[in-house]
From TrEMBL:
The gene is ispE. It catalyses: 4-CDP-2-C-methyl-D-erythritol + ATP = 4-CDP-2-C-methyl-D-erythritol 2-phosphate + ADP + H(+). PANTHER family: 4-DIPHOSPHOCYTIDYL-2-C-METHYL-D-ERYTHRITOL KINASE, CHLOROPLASTIC. It comes from Streptomyces heliomycini. InterPro entries: GHMP_kinase_C_dom, GHMP_kinase_C_sf, GHMP_kinase_N_dom, IspE, Ribosomal_Su5_D2-typ_SF, Ribsml_uS5_D2-typ_fold_subgr. This is 4-diphosphocytidyl-2-C-methyl-D-erythritol kinase. It is an enzyme of class 2 (transferase).
Amino acid sequence: MSVTVRVPAKVNVQLAVGAARPDGYHDLANVFLAVGLYDEVTVTAADGLRVTCAGPDAEQVPLDRTNLAARAALLLAERYGRDADVHLHIAKDIPVAGGMAGGSADGAGALLACDALWGTGASREELLDICAELGSDVPFSLVGGAALGTGRGERLTELEVGGAFHWVFAMASRGLSTPAVFREFDRLGEGREIPEPVASRELLDALAKGDADALAATVSNDLQPAALSLFPELADTLAAGRAAGAPVSLVSGSGPTTAFLARDAEAAEGIAGALRASGTCRMVRTAAGPVPGATVV
Ligand code: C5P
């Protein structure tokens, strides 16, 4: 028997970052939006734990126990006193190390799939708890839709969204390490007072109304200067998207994927075409959000 779970990518429409905490993490006001770019995780009973991966970026995915999907299976098995005897197969479409929560998606997907395969009867709260242990963005991959993440991003408040937002995503020629981007954020902020991160009222209103122009006027990402400092060529991609008419361009999460908000699906295709022709990125995709979180298919 096998179970397949489909899990979306995310873009952060607001990422407000506070000062480094004593534990090394940063308090965040993190507004997540799940978008229709998906990884699929299939779990099948096997002798022992095995991970395989297919897709354009598959060779960059670790297949050992550092893979978040493997860690999710091991954590759930441990809690329920069983062996993690499963083959986890990841059909990967979300860019690797791209700032779109691809690894987190695989963790949430494997957790939900193993839970269904093993019939553990775990509650939603228990699953969310395990997600938070796996990583700051993993709870959102389970929940999907739109949500405000506080703490290190793992404490979620679901948000109302009044319509679909159309996006273009430009994938970069290499990845960025999330810890490295946070370290660069700390370095750039040295000697400066870092304010407490708070969600923008205007931005939450724009989401609730489904108003793309209002959202474009309020998106922000405090990690963007750090991502640009480590990967200066991203400025060319951001400029190419703006030149193509995108109302706003930003780095997605810790990057290096860049995100462009469009007014509708047709405008998104136009911006995508211009970005492909610009030669400033490796691959371009369009996707709309919000979409539901991890779902058994
Ligand atoms: O929680 P997760 O393992 O995904 O975080 C990866 C890394 O990103 C952390 O080790 C930390 O360096 C950085 N991080 C942070 N503050 C957060 C979330 C992540 O500094 N709120």
